[in-house]
Amino acid sequence: MAQADQGQPARIYGAAARHMHWITAAAVIVMVPAGLAMTYRGDTLNIWDATTNAMYSAHKLFGFLVLWLVAGRLAYRLLKGAPPDEPTLTPLQKAGSHLVHWLLYGLLLVVPLLGWIGVSLYPSLTVFGLFDLPALTAPNQQRAEAVLEIHGKLAIAMALLACAHIGAALYHHFIRRDGVLRRMLPGLK
Ligand code: HEM
Ligand code: HEM
């Protein structure tokens, strides 16, 4: 949220938006390689032991939590808006960054949602054998495999887009030396 400062809208994201950004970013940065390691161990090496099962359970649990965090973050963003664009950006840079941000939001919702639909179809809803996630649909294993394949491909697409996004943030900070990264840094007032 842009905080008011002497009648002027703030140039940086509000504390809540920045916290939610960095929690989501950390979750995605950990979950994509962890998801690939988990399917490599299970599907490729065909090792289905307690460690593989724990990796799948942790993936389902954290992915499920990310979904709700992103839903909250998106609602907050839609209600409170964002600070005005960094003034030195060209119209093309503004349009490009908005497009990437909204694509990231879309993928942040669709990827975990497809994971949840996939494990509902399989069905493989248990988390550490302690409880089940709620089922979203009736079982259909063939469809589960198709949905989980799309889930994995879109997760990789999101990771690639996030790499471009991170590259852009670093370019702004270290090469253009403008205020773009500062807008999102934690610990600012
Ligand atoms: C932001 C959240 C998530 C990210 C970034 C993510 C990422 C990934 C990645 C990278 C893979 C490996 C794909 C591959 O090897 O081709 C994967 C697989 C998988 N994910 Fe997720 N995931 C998320 C959320 C979820 C959720 C919420 C669930 C279920 C509740 C879930 C269930 C699965 C399952 C079952 C697989 C294995 C699919 C297979 O064996 O082919 N994921 N995920
Ligand atoms: C080291 C990692 C990252 C850095 C340095 C970074 C940096 C930034 C910066 C500076 C902004 C504000 C841009 C602006 O105001 O024009 C931003 C916004 C955003 N970032 Fe990141 N980011 C990182 C990782 C991620 C990841 C992994 C995701 C999700 C997959 C993500 C999703 C978003 C979204 C959706 C916005 C738009 C926020 C809004 O306007 O509501 N970021 N990021």
TrEMBL record:
<keyword id="KW-0408">Iron</keyword>
<protein>
    <submittedName>
        <fullName>Cytochrome b</fullName>
    </submittedName>
</protein>
<keyword id="KW-0249">Electron transport</keyword>
<keyword id="KW-0349">Heme</keyword>
<dbReference type="InterPro" id="IPR016174">
    <property type="entry name" value="Di-haem_cyt_TM"/>
</dbReference>
<keyword id="KW-1003">Cell membrane</keyword>
<feature type="transmembrane region" description="Helical">
    <location>
        <begin position="99"/>
        <end position="122"/>
    </location>
</feature>
<feature type="transmembrane region" description="Helical">
    <location>
        <begin position="61"/>
        <end position="79"/>
    </location>
</feature>
<comment type="similarity">
    <text>Belongs to the cytochrome b561 family.</text>
</comment>
<feature type="transmembrane region" description="Helical">
    <location>
        <begin position="21"/>
        <end position="41"/>
    </location>
</feature>
<keyword id="KW-0479">Metal-binding</keyword>
<keyword id="KW-1133">Transmembrane helix</keyword>
<keyword id="KW-0813">Transport</keyword>
<dbReference type="InterPro" id="IPR011577">
    <property type="entry name" value="Cyt_b561_bac/Ni-Hgenase"/>
</dbReference>
<dbReference type="Pfam" id="PF01292">
    <property type="entry name" value="Ni_hydr_CYTB"/>
</dbReference>
<dbReference type="InterPro" id="IPR052168">
    <property type="entry name" value="Cytochrome_b561_oxidase"/>
</dbReference>
<feature type="transmembrane region" description="Helical">
    <location>
        <begin position="154"/>
        <end position="174"/>
    </location>
</feature>
<keyword id="KW-0812">Transmembrane</keyword>
<keyword id="KW-0472">Membrane</keyword>
<feature type="domain" description="Cytochrome b561 bacterial/Ni-hydrogenase">
    <location>
        <begin position="13"/>
        <end position="187"/>
    </location>
</feature>
